[in-house]
Design brief:
The protein folds into 2 domains: about 250 residues, UDP-N-acetylmuramoyl-L-alanine:D-glutamate ligase; about 140 residues, Mur ligase, C-terminal domain (Protein-Tyrosine Phosphatase, Chain A). Helix content is about 35%, strand content about 15%. It contains 14 helices and 17 strands. The strands form 3 sheets. It has an 8-stranded mixed beta sheet, sandwiched between helices. Helix 1 packs across helix 8. The protein is globular.
Length: about 400
C-alpha cells in the first residue's frame, strides 16, 4: 500500500521512534513539550485515542481536522481496493501520508504493539529510537514471557542509530544489549549513561534531578504527577541530550516540564458534570493504566494519599489481569465500585470485577455505570468531610469518563 502511494514514510520529517510497555505516550508528551518550547514544530502519532480519533495524529502540534482525516482515509481505501488490512495499519498509512505532505521539524512516532512487526517500524534511519520500561502486557499478541516481549520491542533498534533505554530489569537489559551489539547500536541507558533522581540526592521537595553525559539539570517536578513521570521525563531528556542539530536549552526544558499535558494519566478532574456528582470536598481522579507495572506506579502515588479515604471505580478489558492490577493498590483502597466499559465487547462485566475484588478481601459492589457508582458514593458518604475517587483500569473507561465530563482534548 505504501509503495502504491509512492512511499510517504520515506519523505516524512526526521523521526524519534518509541516503543515500550508503559510510558510511551507520556515520553512523547514530554518530548513534544521540550521541542515546542524551543520553537520546533512536531508531527506526532500516538495511540489509542481517548475521546476523538483525531487525537492519534497531530500535524505541527495541532489535531488533524475531521475533513483532512476523512480525505486521507478515503485515499487509502481507494488504493487498498478492499484488500485485507488492519485498523492500525491503515491509520498508520494515513499518518505517514499526512506527515509527508505537511513538513514539521521532527516526527514523534509511537509503536502500537511490540516493535519488530509493528506497522510503524518502517523508518530505516530514525534520528533516535527509545524504549520505555518493558513488562508483561498484550500477551495475546506478544507472548507470555518477558523475553519474547523484549525481543519484539527491541525490533525498533536500528543499525548505527543511538537507542535511549529507560530503566529495565537485568534480563531485559541483556536482551537489549545483545540486539544492540548485533546492530552496532550505541545504547544510552538509565542507570548507566544517565540517571533521573539518583538515590543519593534528596528529592523530598519534588525536585527532579537529571544527570547525563552532557546535562546536569536541577529541575522542577513535572506537570504530570507521579514518580513514574520523572522516569518518562528523564527518558525524554536523554533523547534531547542525544539529538543533533536541535538547540534545546535548560530554560525551554523548564517551560516544557511546567506546561506538558497528557490527558487520562493520573489526571485530576476539578470541574464538570462528574465532579459535580460528588460531595464538595471529594477529589476526582482518572488514570488509564491497565497492567501490573502501571498499578505499581499508581500505588506510589496512592500511598501518599493516606489523608483521605480512597474509593476505586474500576473497569477493565478481559485480556487484563484483575488480580495483578489490584494487588499493588489493595492496601490503599477503602472500597471498590466495579463497572463494565460501555460499548466494549471485550470488557469484564461489573460482576466479574466485583467477585475478583471480593476474593482479595476488598469491599466491592458492581454498578451499571460511572454515574451510578459516583451517585452511590455521594449518597453513602455525603456526611463525610472528604475523600478521593479514582476511576482507573482502562484507557477506554477513562476516555468515557472524559466524554461524560464534557472534557475536550486540543
Amino acid at each position: 500500500m505504501l509503495s502504491k502511494l509512492r512511499n510517504p514514510e520515506k519523505n516524512i520529517p526526521p523521526v524519534i521512534h518509541i516503543a515500550g510497555t508503559n510510558g510511551k505516550g507520556s515520553t512523547i508528551a514530554f518530548l513534544r513539550a521540550f521541542l515546542e518550547a524551543s520553537g520546533y514544530s512536531c508531527n506526532v502519532y500516538t495511540s489509542p485515542h481517548l475521546i476523538r480519533f483525531n487525537e492519534r495524529i497531530r500535524i505541527k502540534g495541532k489535531l488533524i481536522s475531521n475533513q483532512y482525516l476523512i480525505d486521507l482515509l478515503e485515499e487509502c481505501e481507494r488504493i487498498n481496493k478492499n484488500k485485507s488490512i488492519t485498523f492500525f495499519e491503515i491509520t498508520t498509512v494515513a499518518a505517514f501520508l499526512a506527515f509527508s505532505r505537511n513538513r514539521s521539524d521532527i516526527t514523534l512516532l509511537e509503536t502500537g504493539l511490540g516493535g519488530k512487526f509493528d506497522a510503524t517500524n518502517l523508518i530505516k534511519k530514525p534520528l533516535l529510537t527509545a524504549i520505555t520500561p518493558i513488562s508483561i502486557d498484550h500477551v495475546k499478541f506478544l507472548g507470555h514471557s518477558l523475553k519474547t516481549i523484549t525481543k519484539e520491542k527491541a525490533g525498533i533498534l536500528k543499525r548505527n542509530v543511538t537507542g535511549i533505554i529507560s530503566r529495565q530489569t537485568d534480563s531485559v537489559q541483556k536482551i537489549l544489549r545483545d540486539e544492540a551489539k548485533r546492530k552496532n547500536v550505541e545504547l544510552y541507558r538509565e542507570g548507566k549513561e544517565w540517571n533521573i533522581n539518583p538515590i543519593d540526592y534528596p528529592v523530598a521537595t519534588g525536585a527532579m534531578i537529571f544527570r547525563g553525559k552532557k546535562f546536569f539539570f536541577d529541575l522542577p517536578s513535572p506537570n504530570l504527577p507521579g514518580v513514574h513521570q520523572h522516569v518518562n521525563a528523564g527518558t525524554a531528556l536523554a533523547c534531547v541530550e542525544n539529538l543533533k542539530d536541535f538547540e534545546i536549552n535548560e530554560s525551554a526544558i523548564r517551560r516544557g516540564l511546567t506546561t506538558v499535558s497528557w490527558p487520562g494519566r493520573l489526571q485530576k478532574i476539578s470541574h464538570g458534570p462528574l465532579k459535580k456528582i460528588l460531595p464538595n470536598r471529594f477529589e476526582l481522579w482518572i488514570d488509564g493504566g491497565h497492567n501490573e507495572a502501571a498499578a505499581q506506579a499508581l500505588s506510589q502515588v496512592t500511598k501518599t494519599w493516606s489523608d483521605k479515604p480512597l474509593y476505586l471505580i474500576l473497569g477493565m478489558i478481559n485480556s487484563k489481569n484483575i488480580y495483578k492490577f489490584l494487588k499493588p493498590l489493595q492496601s490503599y483502597v477503602k472500597e471498590l465500585r466495579a463497572v463494565a466499559i460501555p460499548n466494549e465487547k471485550s470488557s469484564f462485566s461489573a460482576k466479574e470485577i466485583e467477585k475478583k475484588a471480593q476474593s482479595m478481601g476488598i469491599k466491592s459492589e458492581s454498578y451499571d455505570g460511572l454515574k451510578d457508582a459516583l451517585n452511590f458514593i455521594t449518597k453513602k458518604y455525603q456526611e463525610k468531610n472528604e475523600g478521593r475517587v479514582l476511576i482507573c483500569g482502562s484507557l477506554y473507561l477513562v476516555g468515557h469518563a472524559l466524554e461524560l465530563n464534557r472534557c475536550t482534548i486540543d
